[in-house]
């Protein structure tokens, strides 16, 4: 039995049943990581303690204990989530070499659930980007096509799960950073209800939008990891108590009412993605779901609102990287001013600088009302419109991303187009509701010739994943998982689709 | 202060006071704080602003802040908000300070105080808000190419109390400050130590021609870490601004640093150089809800304010304003005084208890900061004297033993053989008669008009009764017998 072909649910069961040892599981995945990571660049750090953590799981199982729901399952952690014993870089030079003295709450929860921490995964610097090209430590490649981006910012986590270097990974989602790479890598990617998963130990990008979420190849795996993460944390004042959330009704008792968001099918949607969405809706309708159309009129302002609020908060959150207490300090500063400007000038990459500048501007005296305050007002409108839509629907539906995955390098000089990749995803962050990207199908061809990549037969098949996005009411993650189970029954081929195994020799970067 | 300046100009002063709340732990994390501890030992990941850390509001700090609001009669917002105030400085770990901005937890309120001449003033407050303290930069000797930072103080809870610009002299400013400190101490929420920085004051000063209403351009002075500095700096600044206006120039809006050694201010930054703090609501903290029931339960914990105490000591216990003020400034002693009076529970005794405390106990309290005698013991002692069982003179001897740690004055006095008056029985008269018979020469002197011989007789009686006799009664008796 090759552990790398099992789901997380199967691994946990097998290790608990002593059909597999956690050590054997880890050794199989570690071998795969060592073999493919040089190509994919998904991991920035492999946990050197993983084997002994796995051995401890085996010892506990042998002693008759239950180490928890993730018993012996290797889980990769996005490198903007702090871990003791391993560096946390946020894929930024400014944090290179820094090791946190404390574990993020989600990391403590993973350990408490019996998981084996596989290592830290690559990302866009400080989670700012949608392609993983903004990492200070190199681009990540999409296992479905090495010429294509894996999405971002949780690109390393998505590539690792898609290539079966781990069964599960943590991502973080501020404006689509779990769902967009899930869409690009044919995975389930969940952005939980804001406040459902603790942010303590998640290096802040935009505090009012950030949520940690799972990336998995099956809905059941995503749910398994999500349930291990969710819950109130006294260290995070924005985390919700169970009492804060209404208990979700059992979604199986009646046909799911799915509202198709009109604004998610407007201008800018790639025809191939549209076609995949239409086929998916037909299948769901045939399976008994009630399909209606809903409108979120303010959703068209989502990107503008998101990039004002996220950059404002980022400009504040990233103030602490000053070279005084930690982080890489620029040498030879002659005075305090130079210490700051050189440390930050040398330590941050161009996209991070761009966002700090944008956010600083939006919060400046004289501009605050026109930008930050106005954006907050529109955010309130979006939140209300989403809540109103849920009065008649259980789920909202649309594509996760307007386009199929694009080629590495295609958008690096066009940040605005890159930002538009998040146009459907940001709505859930702004509204605080849970959203799941579900593998929905494939675009027939890869990136267009105009992007410089052709399906000339030299590479893998020009077939790239497309995800559909479902939004639910706050706290109703289980409705998303219920729909996913229904969907998996309809389209079993999608979840069994695997990214091709790549040999290092095939890659010509 | 040149009085001619004040003839022409009216100073207008507002104060911003930062007070450290003496909570068990810091504003947003469970780390304690003490002054003067080894640098960087009272820290944790939150204090240092490490990546991924989040603030959690200290409930005790909010309770302290609410008590202050209640004590000064401010309006407490049911829902207030924390905000981030941004600037770069090495002692500010996150690059922003968590403070409150346009939705502070308290608005309005008033502080009443007395000037040294006894006149009373009310100073209205603009607002009070909560925030966190910064660390401290420590600059090495001149020539060193580095500075050090101590983050022990970082994250200590502060309240900032902002007064309206309604004071008109340095004396008023100092009176206000002293009253505010007294209130903070009475509430037990801040030790008010200006030198150690647990209470810090910035003064906004402007002047205007008398008979005009429009406020002049103000300057803000920092580093006023004593009452003298507050007073000196304000007077200096009033004169400086007057000189500027007298020359026909305008005062430039600026932040100034007071140099107590030179006795002058220097410009820290001008209005043009003022920082844009880019305030925005703190996204890591939900709006701060302060439920009405909690406010009400805290109201029950707000003690009587100093000036109210003073007024009550005068009206209820007939103390002099002078004595009442001493008690007001030494709250522990005031509470002790009232305990004694309550325990003695005898009408008319309060003034005597007050006198006793102020003359016999205050010195020890000032020297040691402690009151070594139990209130019930002092009450018992006062009752022995009041009941005629112990003379005032002997009570002092008993009290000396009590100061040394002994308890139960009745037993003490009995053991010393001082208890019980001899004035009531015939014993005293017999003693006096024997004395007169045995000392014919002295009697003769007295009768010839040398009345100071009386001292000799009284002394002999006291010796013979081991002090139990009442000296006044003995004198009266002797006078009768000798005449």
Protein described:
The complex is a heterodimer of chains A (509) and B (483). Chain A has 16 helices and 11 strands. Chain A is α/β, with parallel strands linked by helices. Chain A has a single domain, classed as Amidase signature (AS) domain (Amidase signature (AS) enzymes), CATH 3.90.1300. Chain A has an 11-stranded mixed β-sheet, with helices on both faces. In chain A, helix 2 (22-40) runs antiparallel to helix 3 (50-62) and helix 9 (302-317) packs across helix 12 (369-389). Chain A is globular, with a radius of gyration of 21 Å. The model of chain A is unreliable at 446-460 and 503-509 (pLDDT under 50). In chain B, the strands form 4 sheets. In chain B, strands 1, 2, 6, 7, 8, 11, 12, 13, 14 and 15 form a 10-stranded mixed β-sheet that branches. Chain B has 16 helices and 17 strands. In chain B, helix 3 (170-187) packs antiparallel against helix 4 (227-246), helix 7 packs across helix 8 (331-344) and helix 10 (375-386) runs antiparallel to helix 11 (392-403). In chain B, a hairpin with a 5-residue loop joins strand 7 (110-114) and strand 8. With 483 residues, chain B is α+β, with helices and mostly antiparallel strands. Classes of the chains: A alpha/beta (509), B alpha+beta (483). At the A-B interface, helix 9 of A face loops of B.
What tags apply to this protein structure?
heterodimer, A: 509 residues, alpha/beta, Amidase signature (AS) enzymes, 11-stranded mixed beta sheet, 11 strands, globular, disordered C terminus, B: 483 residues, alpha+beta, Arc Repressor Mutant, subunit A, 3 domains, 10-stranded mixed beta sheet, 16 helices, 17 strands
Specify the CATH homologous superfamily of chain A. Amidase signature (AS) domain
Q: How would you describe the oligomerization state of the chains in this entry?
A: heterodimer
Any idea what the CATH architecture of chain A is? Alpha-Beta Complex
Give average pLDDT of chain A, whole number.
92
Q: Domains counted in the coordinates of chain A: how many?
A: 1
Q: How many E strands of chain B? A: 17
Strand content of chain B: 15-25%
